[in-house]
Amino acid sequence: MTIITKQKPIWARNWMIGAIIVISSALIISVVVDALTSVTAPVVTNPHNLWYPSGFGANLWNSLSTFTIQTNLMVLIFFILALVNYFKKNRIPTINLGRFKFSVTIYITITFIIFWSSLFKNTINNTDFHDSVALLSFVNTFLLHLFTPLAMIGYYLLTSGFVKWAIKPSAIKTLPIAISYLFIYLAYALIKGTFVGQVVNNEVKYSYPYFFLNIKENIGNFFIYFAIILVLFLVLFLIYYYYNNYQYKYKQRKLKSQEEEIKL
User: Fold this and answer.
1) String of DSSP letters for 196-221
2) Is 52 exposed, middle or buried (0-12, 13-18, 19+ CB in 10 A)?
3) Tens-place pLDDT, residues 231-244
4) Which residues are CB-contacts of 76 (< 8 A; sequence separation ≥ 6)?
5) CA 100 to each of CA 36, 79, 234: distance values in angstroms, whole numbers, following the listed order
6) Is residue 96 within 8 Å of residue 82, measured between CB atoms?
């Protein structure tokens, strides 16, 4: 395996710093919104006899249970590690070349695609634009579902190709590790949604993070979305895998061309 090592340019440092600042701000805004909307409301009905938490802790737990917040946190952690590695002059190349960067890019791309294709319309319909907190949350939606994905995807596209990935190790090691998070998240979301309630309009309802995970209401819808997300993951895995190897070949050709010019 041939690895092309190179210290990242200044633009990469600025990219990472900017991403860290904006993503951190978006996550802080999410916590603030959770705090501002944590007024305990009287529960009128609890038809499913669910245990339910209340207040700020409940709102924070529900936020942390979403795929959006978890993948944004992953992106933030990656950029922090990558920035530290930058100042250490790339002493830990696996941060930029390893499975974590590859997997996080896939996860946040899924967040981007699913939200804008299936959830954005519901977000508009459920937002009270006359309420300042709701408006703040709506604006923050663009940071979490647009800025973060584009920042991570753009960084991946611009910094790939320093190592060529072999098919067999990628299929045997990288794919199972990367896809395992989806199944772990799914199991957690279904368990929490089924056994823990959340207060919505003075009624305790199931706390599934997304409507398509609600197996109590429409299990057929759940399997359709599960299949779509699974196929989407595999497609993105192949796209980002082959893009990296294409960039590697391009960089190799460019390197050989420069070496030949020096010899001349």
Assistant:
1) BEEEETTEEEE--SSGGG-TTT-HHH
2) middle
3) 999 999 999 999 99
4) 19, 20, 23, 24, 27
5) 34, 11, 16
6) yes
